[in-house]
Structures are given as C-alpha cells and as structure tokens.
UniProtKB/TrEMBL annotation:
Pfam families in UniProt: WHD_E2F_TDP
InterPro entries in alphabetical order: E2F, E2F_WHTH_DNA-bd_dom, WH-like_DNA-bd_sf, WH_DNA-bd_sf
Designated name of the protein: Transcription factor E2F8
The organism of origin for this protein: Mesitornis unicolor (brown roatelo)
Keywords: Activator, Cell cycle, DNA-binding, Nucleus, Repressor, Transcription, Transcription regulation
Region called Disordered, residue ranges: 1-42, 337-357, 444-492, 548-577
Protein family: Belongs to the E2F/DP family.
SMART domains: E2F_TDP
Length: 829
DNA sequence: TGATCCCGCCAACGT
DNA sequence: ACGTTGGCGGGATCA
C-alpha cells in the first residue's frame, strides 16, 4: 500500500531531502540509519566494481552533490523548526520538495543515462517508490511520461526496463513525424487564430472553422507512437488501451517539435489535446483537468530538460508556456536509417562526454553510414576531453543500483556507455553562482585545449543553466543540443567581425508559424522585414490580427528593449557601449527597474524571426584556429544572450569554437528571437578588422561541402545543389536603395552583404531564390551580415525580404510562408 | 488572486 | 478477490 506520509525510511541517500528532524508528526523509523547504500546484497561487490567505473563515480558525485544540498535544506528546516518552536509537521516538506519534478530528478539519478544496451536495467516500481519514499502513484506519473519517450518500457506489471537516452533521438524524430502528419502546426495556428478572433472579433462567423478546421481527420485518434524494435517488449505485457498520460505526453512533445518558435503555451496545448477530434465544447472543467495533467507532464519533461518553462506575452497577457530545450530534431531522415542509426541523445546535464567515435560520427549526424575521416584537431580535442573527464570522475564511489553486468560492460567498453549524472538541479538553483563557476572552469579547460583564449566571458544566462554543466558544449554529440543555451551559442554565432559571408536559408516547413516583429515604436522606424509584398491567402486574416497585436505590444516592446539594452553592458565593447547610449531610451528608470526585477530570471522578451539558417561561408579558418578574442567572445556572448532561442534550433553541432579548426560551415539556425534592443545595441567592431578579414578571405568552401551540409541538415533535398558561394553571384537587389547606408565608407561591405542570398526551399526540394537585401550596416559598425541581420530591426539596418524573385514570392504565397506580425514574447519565469 | 500541482480516492484492469 | 494502474479533480501552496 502507499506508505504513510511520514514513513521516513531512508533507503537512499536521495531521499534525504525528506526531513528527519520533525519530531512531532510521525516518529520516523530510526531503523536503518546507516549511510551506506543498502542498494542490494551485492552492493559490496558493486562498490569494488564501481571503483573502476567512471560512470559510477560520476553518479556518486552527483549524489554527493544532492546530498550536500539536501543537507543544507535539512539543517535549514531544522533550524526553522527550532526557531519557530512547534511548527510541527507540514511546514517541513515544503510542497516544492515534493514536486514531481524533483522526484523525477531523483528518479533519473538512479539510472545511467546511457545504460548498457547489452544488459537491461530494470525498474521495480515498488522499490523505487519505497526508496524515493513516495507513493507509487507518483512513480507512475514519471514512468508514464518516460515511457512516452521510450526511455523506459514496460516489461511486466510493476516492472519496467530502463533505456535511458538511447532512444530519445529516434523517438523524437518519430514524434515529430507523427506531429507533422497530424498537422499539428496547422492546428496550433488554428487555435491561435481562433483565440485571436475570439478576442478581437465580436462578429459571429467563427463556428464554421471552429468545428472542423482540419479536413482530414481520418486518424483523429493518433495513438501511442512506438519505436520499431521497442514495441515488442511493450506489447508483451502491455495491454494498450488507455495510456492517456503517455499519449498526452507524446502529443505534447509533438507540439514542440512541429512549432517553430518551439514554444507551446499550456492553453494551446490543452486545447489541441482535448479537442483535436472532438467538438470543441469548451468544457471548463475538462480544460482545467487537462491543464493539470499537462503540468504533470511538463514537470517531468522539465526534469529531463527537454523543455523549460517560459511565459508568452500576447494580447491576452502572460500565459504559461514551455519552450523546447531538447535536441533539435531533424525531419528528413529516412526511416531505414532511423531504425539502424543509433544517434545518441545527451542527457540534460552535459556532463557526459561522448566518445571520440560518437563525437566524430555525430559531427555529421544521422546521414547514415557515411564514413568520415576525422579531422586531426578533432581527435585531439576529444582526447583531451576524455582525459579531463577521467580526472573529474576519478573520485571513488559507492555502489550504485545497477546490475553488476552493466557495470562490467561499462568497464569493458569505456567511453561507450557514457552516462550523465542527473543532478537535482532544483536543489541547486540557489547555488547557481557556484555552479556557474564550476561550469566555466570546466569549459575553459576544454577551450584551452583548443588554444583559444582562456578567458571565459561571464555572461548573463538563464537561471536554469545553473545546473552543473560540467562539460563544454562541444562535447555534446551533434544533432543534439546541450541544455544550456550558453553552451552552444558561441558556436552558433559566426565570427562577429570576420567579414564572413552568409547565406540565409529559410526552411519553409518552419516558416509556417514564423512570426516576425513589427516595430511600432519610435526607435524602430523601419520594419525589419518587409513582407508586404507577399500576398498570402491568409494574409488578410493575419494582417489584421498582427497589426492590432503589434499596436498592443508597443508598450511591451519598449520595456523589452530597455531591458536588453540594460544588460548589454556586460559586453566589453566600447563601441557597443556607444551604441547602447545611442539607443538607450529615455525611460531608463523604467528599464532599470524592470531589469532588476528580472535580472535573475532573464526575463528577456524576445521577438521571433523567421526560422531558417544562417550559414557562414567561412574563409576557411584563417589558417589558424585562433579562438575568439575576448572581445569577440564578448560580442558573441552578448549576441547569444539575446538570441538564445537559436540555440535550440542548433541543427549542427557547430557549437564548439574548436570546430573552427576544421574547415566547416557555421550554420546558424535562424530560429531567432530578437529583442529589438539587443539589435540596437549590438557590438561594433572596427572597420579595419573587417576589411582585413574581408580581403583575407581567399578560400571558399567547396560547393560539394556546402551542398552536403545543407542536405545533411535537411535544408535541401538530396538532389538539389546550391552554388558554393552565393556571394559571388551577382543578384540584383532592388530594394537595397531604400536602406540607405549612412556612409559611403561602407560600400564594399554593403555590396557584399546585399549579395547574400536568401534561399527558400520547398518541401519538395524545389528551391527558389530570394535575394535578401541586407542593408548596409552602419558605416561605423562593420559587422558581419549576421549581425546586421540581427540588428536590422533596431538600427538603421533593414532586411527586406521579398526584394527580388517574384516567383519565389508567389511560391511563398501559396501558403508555405506567411509572416504574421504577431509578436510573441517569451520570458523565462 | 491566479498559477501550480500534490494528494489520494476509486474505477478499470490484470492476474 | 486482490493488486496494479492511472484518471481525475479537490483544494493546498506558491508567487
């Protein structure tokens, strides 16, 4: 039966959070107080084995950590108790300490992230429940969600198998596919639209589409998505049927995977999950219940760091939402490879380091059997990382609940079974500073092996990254995104002033839900994207809607802007400071206030821009692997800070600066959320440096590489090829003149910039070109195109989207791309 | 307050 | 009949 609330039998160190210092409530069974791990009778043996297992050691570390924090909590509680006299019972286990999320962390901590595939790790629900000291009911909640991700599978009653993160990549791909098939993208838009109309339109006429928005509802009851090779196990004992939570969880995840700003509000999710087939009777209580369930799911997903809570600010006000922070999921991967290729998905806390093999293999994620020669520098890098890890994990450990066979496997296949300690980040939040330091130190060591400047520029980062992320981003297997945005960002952002050219590729499939920003306040007189030329079928609706929204948003925009500007000072760039001043709005007080209140939570309001990819066409590494200079880093950091959402979209693990040593493309996902402010205050670099870089750029990437890259990440279909260097192509840009350069000095740059090509690709692979006229950057601000692009909305720079190829525009108007000027703000916390 | 979401009743199942 | 699962929603907490 479910244990009594207070039946405090601490079997696991992990349960130490449970206050044992409360005398009144329930006399805690003083029974087993031995701190040792009573895991199993063979624990001694395991202990010996684990001495050699890095995995175990790291596990131990993690546990220590959580121990530490929990102890703090404990003492704190005890103190409280003493101080307040008899505050007996209840105040103790604060509600938060019993949260599903925390529980999930504990749960996850029990198992290796990447368990041996040879031996199964089993989960006995009873045991777990007992050891974690919770009712079994709660474990079900967790397990059900994990099951939906195929991280566990049911073997028999009360018995599950733990798979860890092995399957996640595949699962997500499957889910994404399912989501696409289910037309979730459209559904989301539908809901949003409906909602909008509901608010702003009082005229009836809404019900025709309300009832049957999506023509094909044949499926309508999309059931549990299973993985090939996974299902048999489940099938053995699983009497499918309900699985509501599981299915709900999957659907929820799908929503993230198919929506372009990967942000899903609870409300929308609930509506879709409720009514996708059934008539939309806005049953209040049903809705409420759904929301409750979604919270449950979200808590687990959050523990997995697949999502993160944010808030979207829309016309309606702040709405709870969640943002996908999990790995980017590629779509165009053939099923065959889906099944055979086992891509690894790194667990949240990036403490695991992929093996060399993984690293190199994943460098070119999921295109299958292609064999790539590892670049020497990469090998070196990986090696040093591995060394680092060994050092880090050299601490002795105590036994862990893993089957002995697993352990042996681990030692037999070092580097293969990387596991990532899941730290109870919740508990660590208060110690984010420390964590950050640790993280920085570690990342630095990694950076150093790359010979780049050791200075790691501290940057504002979301609180969530307080989690100990002991490994630099570059250690993440490609195709997967490290949990911490900051980790990836540097890589995503191309050298700020290298004079590199970029091609912008928009992925139409993502363009559906793209939102853009409509500047309506003084400081941004120029629209960032002039899409008026696009005559979309839907345009009427969206125009109307977006316009109003834009107006409504004005106030928010201001504050947003200020906020970002305020943060800017972190950037060590005199020029940027100048810039900042220039752009600093009058409402400084306001800003500061706002900033202060949000500085912890990084409540950055951001604007989404059309998704796509910024692909740097590097001048082949300038001969040296010269890392970012401090200044550069600063610039990068600042940028990354304001564009953190792009991190999620990381398709290619360009992440590590190290990779610069390898001639490669920097592909920056343009899942950009820009805050107008950041744009205005973007760092400025010296002209000279720009020019020098420009002139020095001799080599162009071979077109084959480019094509490969594009194909690889699914931007273009296999057959299609694009010119190696768009910059070399002269494409007349008509709209350019409007965006007047402020100085002739900049002409060169301007020309270069304006020649960048925006390539829109169709699902079918029919690609059309659109030239993007990237306006000339401010003469004094010789940034790369990338930055120009970033700055566009704020500064004098503008990007005119549909400037040339009318054909392409038409294509867009077919419905593949519309850019509602809805503004979406996302803030953490 | 509203947003969160813990708790545990109890029904549907499985054995 | 009894144990497992897990839907569900009241109402406690949190912000």
């Amino acid at each position: 039966k479910s244990p009594l609330k207070q039946a405090a039998t601490s079997h696991s160190v992990l349960t130490e959070i449970q206050p044992h210092c409360q005398p009144l409530t329930t006399p805690p069974k003083p029974k087993e107080t031995l701190p040792a791990d009573p895991w199993t009778p063979t624990s001694n043996l395991k202990m010996l084995i684990s001495a050699a297992s890095p995995e175990i050691r790291s596990r131990e570390q993690r546990r220590e950590l959580s121990n530490c924090t929990s102890k703090v909590l404990q003492t704190k509680q005890c103190l409280q108790e003493q101080l307040s006299g008899d505050e007996y019972e209840r105040s103790q286990p604060s509600r938060k300490e019993k949260s599903l999320g925390l529980l999930c962390h504990k749960f996850l901590a029990r198992y290796p992230d990447y368990p041996s595939t040879a031996e199964s790790t089993f989960i006995c629900l009873d045991e777990v429940a007992e050891e974690l000291n919770v009712e079994r009911r709660r474990i079900y909640d967790i397990v059900n969600v994990l099951e939906s991700l195929h991280m566990v599978s049911r073997l028999a009653k009360n018995k599950y198998a733990w798979h860890g993160w092995h399957n996640l990549s595949k699962t997500l791909q499957a889910l994404k596919k399912a989501g696409e098939e289910n037309k979730y993208t459209q559904q989301i838009e539908m809901i949003k639209k409906r909602e909008y109309e509901h608010v702003f339109d009082l005229d009836g006429e809404r019900n025709e589409e309300m009832t049957r928005p999506f023509g094909s509802n044949e499926h309508s009851e999309m059931s549990f998505v299973e993985l090939p090779g996974m299902e048999f196990r489940a099938a053995s004992v699983n009497s499918r049927k309900d699985k509501s939570l599981r299915v709900m969880s999957q659907k929820f995840v799908m929503l993230f995977l198919v929506s372009t700003p990967q942000v899903v509000s609870l409300e929308v999710a609930a509506k879709i999950l409720i009514g996708e087939d059934q008539l939309e009777d806005l049953d209040k209580s049903k809705f409420k219940t759904k929301i409750r369930r979604l919270y449950d799911i979200a808590n687990v997903l959050s523990s997995l760091e697949l999502i993160k809570k944010v808030h979207v600010t829309e016309e309606r006000g702040r709405k709870p939402a969640f943002k996908w922070t999990g790995p980017e999921v590629l779509t165009n991967i053939p099923d065959t490879e889906l099944e055979t290729t086992s891509t690894t998905c790194p667990p949240p806390v990036s403490e695991s380091i992929p093996s060399k093999e993984q690293c190199s293999k994943n460098l070119f994620p999921s295109r299958g059997k292609q064999n790539f020669t590892r670049h020497p520098s990469l090998i070196k890098l990986v090696k040093s990382i591995e060394n680092d890890r060994r050092t880090i994990q050299s601490a002795p450990t105590s036994p862990v609940k893993i089957s002995a066979s697993t352990d042996q496997n681990l030692s037999a296949l070092p580097g293969e079974m990387e596991q990532v300690p899941a730290i109870a980040k919740h508990q660590l939040k208060g110690q984010s500073k420390k964590a950050k330091e640790t993280k920085m130190k570690l990342s630095r060591s990694a950076l150093e092996c790359n010979s780049s400047s050791p200075e790691v520029v501290p940057k504002p980062e979301p609180p969530r990254s307080a989690a100990l992320s002991q490994q630099p981003a570059l250690t993440q297997p490609p195709g997967v995104r490290p949990p911490s945005h900051s980790a990836v960002a540097p890589a995503i952002l191309p050298h700020p002033h290298s004079g590199v050219s970029y091609a912008i590729y928009l992925c139409p499939s993502q363009a559906h839900t793209v939102t853009t920003y409509s500047p309506s306040f003084v400081l941004q007189p120029l629209p960032c994207a002039n899409v008026t030329g696009i005559k979309s079928i839907n345009s009427k609706v969206f125009n109307k809607m977006t316009t109003e929204e834009g107006d409504n948003q004005t106030a928010t925009d201001d504050s947003t802007k200020s906020l970002t500007a305020k943060e800017r000072p972190t950037v060590k760039s005199e020029t940027s400071q100048r810039c900042l001043k220039r752009s600093q709005p009058l409402q400084e007080n306001n800003l500061i206030k706002r900033f202060r209140s949000d500085e912890e939570s990084l409540d950055t309001s951001l604007t989404f821009f059309p998704s796509g990819y910024l692909i740097a066409l590097p001048q082949c590494s300038h001969g040296s692997k010269a890392g970012f200079s401090n200044k550069e880093k600063a610039g990068i950091c600042s940028l990354q800070h304001t564009t953190y959402s792009s991190a999620i979209a990381g398709v290619i693990p360009v992440a590590a600066p190290e990779l610069k040593a390898v001639p490669t493309f920097h592909i920056t996902p343009l899942n950009i959320m820009l805050s107008p402010t950041s744009i205005a205050a973007a760092p400025v670099l010296s002209n000279s440096s720009l020019h020098s870089h420009n002139t020095s750029s001799a080599q162009n990437p071979s077109s084959s590489v480019l094509n490969f890259t594009l194909q690889h990440i699914g931007l273009i279909p296999a057959g299609v090829r694009v010119p190696a260097n768009p910059v070399l192509q002269h494409i007349p840009v008509s709209s350019q003149p409007e965006n007047v350069s402020h100085s002739s000095e900049n002409k060169n740059l301007q020309e270069k910039v304006s020649k960048n090509v925006l390539q829109l690709l169709d699902h079918d692979g029919l690609s059309e070109k659109l030239t993007v006229s990237l306006s000339l950057p401010d003469p004094k601000e010789p940034q790369t195109v990338t930055e120009n692009f970033f700055q566009t909305p704020g500064g004098p720079n503008t990007v005119s989207l549909p400037s040339a190829n009318s054909d392409g525009i038409d294509r867009i108007s077919q419905g593949t791309l519309y850019i509602p000027q809805r503004k979406l703000e996302v803030s953490e916390n």
